[in-house]
């Protein structure tokens, strides 16, 4: 059974000011998501699931789903703030959904096979989809064995300013033991460095693995999410800004010894539009990938 690609796109409408402005950054107007789906299809993923907001379903089907459905089976699921377990209701002033792991939970009814989770607007690179597909294809009857793609931190920086990165710690088997959030990361005097609390720059290895929200799970992850989300809501239901993030649950499951999360190395360079100033750089990178023959133009 081929793995499924689950694309987190519920923030897309607000982030882009409407789908009509979904940014065509590639040389033939491709979006970053087009490249992810192209790479995933070629890596061996067999189904595509998008999680979106109901408010832009019609637009999304017209502009996005139509583009892919002849190439790979496509499903849509929806994430809304009121989609909560029995007994819970959102604060009346809550407008945002409940974060990335809440988005993942919306796939429970349509995903019954190993699956990958990615952001809609990050460029991950073809090698990353290949290592992810290869690992997931070994998990058909497995439970409690997950993975994440660990990018080499030097391949994830912005030339426009500092970035926040979750630096991964692993054991001797390459399994995740923890993620340390570094909020100010950039290259200083040639070295990848982060700023300590006392404003001192500390160099880290260019190859140190960081999480860019590219995960691999099996369907048992939905049950853990359901259980933990109830506990999360008991503490945070009235907090307008509280979000149920994937690393929150993954950390809980790894620290307790319930699951293992293999950190998969990739040589791919991650990029995205973290700052407005990043856009020309991203356009140039995609153009170079087309000119050098890594991708056709147009993609499809």
Tell me what the structure shows.
The chain is of the alpha/beta class and 300 residues long. It has a single domain (4-144, 211-291), classed as Alpha-Beta Complex (Spore Coat Polysaccharide Biosynthesis Protein SpsA, Chain A), CATH 3.90.550.10. Helices cover 29% and strands 26% of the residues. The chain has eight helices and 13 strands. The strands form two sheets. Strands 1, 2, 3, 4, 6, 7, 8, 9, 10, 11 and 12 form an eleven-stranded mixed β-sheet that branches. Strands 5-13 form a two-stranded antiparallel ribbon. Helix 2 crosses helix 5 (126-136). The longest helix has 17 residues, at 220-236.
**Total count of helical runs of at least 4 residues:** 8
| Biggest beta sheet summary | 11 strands, mixed
Amino- and carboxy-terminal Cα gap: 25 Å
Please name the CATH architecture: Alpha-Beta Complex
Overall pLDDT:
91
Radius of gyration, Cα only, in angstroms?
19 Å
CATH superfamily: Spore Coat Polysaccharide Biosynthesis Protein SpsA, Chain A
**Percent in strands:** 25-35%
Supply the helix-strand structural class: alpha/beta
Order of helices and strands: EHHEHEHEEHEEEEEEHHEEH
Helicity range: 25-40%
Instruction: Write down the overall geometry.
Output: globular
What's the level 1 CATH class? Alpha Beta
How many structural domains are formed by the residues? 1
Low-confidence stretches: none
